[in-house]
């Protein structure tokens, strides 16, 4: 259900530059997207796991708030992430 540590580190280095750059907005959005995809697959098979659904909703809202912040402050990075992560249809 959770993403592996190695996969998370590879996402951080790909989108954040260095392994320690976990706080940048783009990196946070990418990690949240990977976690959302993992939890979504889990919830599809375990339909009555309501605590995982709640966690999924919380992560989706957090990503939504970060995307709104990024849209307001750095539109180029926002558009790049939306395209690369295939968000917003």
What is the mean pLDDT?
A: 92
What structural class results from the helix and strand content?
mainly alpha
Q: What's the number of extended β-strand segments?
A: 0
- If helices are DSSP runs of H or I spanning 4 or more residues, what is the number of helices? 4
Could you state the order of secondary-structure elements as H and E?
HHHH
- Give the proportion of residues in helices: over 70%
Q: In terms of quaternary structure, what is this?
A: single chain
Written description of the protein model:
With 89 residues, the protein is mostly helical. It has one domain: Orthogonal Bundle (Helix Hairpins), CATH 1.10.287.10. The protein is built from four helices and no strands. It has helices at residues 5-16, 25-45, 50-73, 75-85. Helix 3 (50-73) runs antiparallel to helix 4. Part of the 30S ribosomal subunit. Forms a bridge to the 50S subunit in the 70S ribosome, contacting the 23S rRNA. Belongs to the universal ribosomal protein uS15 family. InterPro entries: Ribosomal_uS15 (IPR000589), Ribosomal_uS15_bac-type (IPR005290), uS15_NS1_RNA-bd_sf (IPR009068).
């Amino acid at each position: 259900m959770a993403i592996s540590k190695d996969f998370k580190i590879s996402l951080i280095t790909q989108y954040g530059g260095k392994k320690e750059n976990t706080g940048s907005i783009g990196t946070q959005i990418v990690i949240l997207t990977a976690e959302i995809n993992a939890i979504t697959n889990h919830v599809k098979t375990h339909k009555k796991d309501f605590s995982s659904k709640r966690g999924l909703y919380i992560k989706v809202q957090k990503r939504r708030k970060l995307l709104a912040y990024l849209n307001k402050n750095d539109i180029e990075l926002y558009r790049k992430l939306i395209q690369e992560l295939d968000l917003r249809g």
